[in-house]
């Protein structure tokens, strides 16, 4: 049975306001879930002060994937509640990268990491400045 009038305006069992409230609650639950994805690992890193067993490359790859999805959705004008969970996960991935840099036991070369941070920031600034020709958007 249909729960509400979401599909083609057909009347359902529940009032549309109740369906809208349920959907809004699910959106907030998704955001809460997004906050909990990486938080246990971040807390463990801060508690133990070690990143042993973590891969900087995998953290960076995951961060860039999250950033790409967020940039696409932002450029396409999609509402934040449809992709905000990924923004929260991406933020946590960024925190993990910074913690990796802080607590890594080996010597890390600063130059390529600084260049990467500046490069990612420059690409984001370019995309969000509106300078990207619309013909390049999907």
Automatic annotation (TrEMBL):
> What is the name of this protein?
Mannose-P-dolichol utilization defect 1 protein homolog
InterPro entries given for it?
MannP-dilichol_defect-1, PQ-loop_rpt
- Where found, per UniProt? Membrane
TM segments?
A: 18-37, 57-75, 87-108, 115-136
Q: How does it sit in the membrane?
A: Multi-pass membrane protein
- One GO CC term of this entry? membrane
Say which family it is in: Belongs to the MPDU1 (TC 2.A.43.3) family.
User: Which keywords fit this entry according to its UniProt record?
Assistant: Membrane, Repeat, Transmembrane, Transmembrane helix, Transport
Transmembrane among keywords: yes
Q: Which Gene3D superfamilies match?
A: 1.20.1280.290
> Where the protein is mainly located, per its record?
membrane
């Amino acid at each position: 049975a249909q729960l509400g009038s979401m599909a083609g305006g057909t009347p359902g069992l529940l009032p549309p306001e109740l369906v809208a409230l349920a959907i809004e609650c699910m959106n907030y639950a998704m955001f809460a879930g997004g906050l909990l994805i990486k938080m246990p690992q971040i807390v463990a890193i801060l508690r133990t002060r070690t990143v042993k067993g973590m891969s900087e490359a995998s953290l960076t790859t995951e961060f860039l994937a999250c950033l790409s999805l967020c940039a696409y959705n932002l450029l396409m004008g999609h509402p934040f509640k449809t992709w905000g969970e990924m923004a929260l996960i991406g933020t946590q991935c960024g925190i993990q990268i910074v913690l990796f840099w802080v607590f890594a036991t080996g010597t890390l070369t600063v130059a390529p990491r600084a260049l990467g941070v500046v490069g990612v920031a420059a690409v984001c600034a370019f995309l969000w400045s509106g300078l990207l020709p619309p013909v390049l958007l999907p």
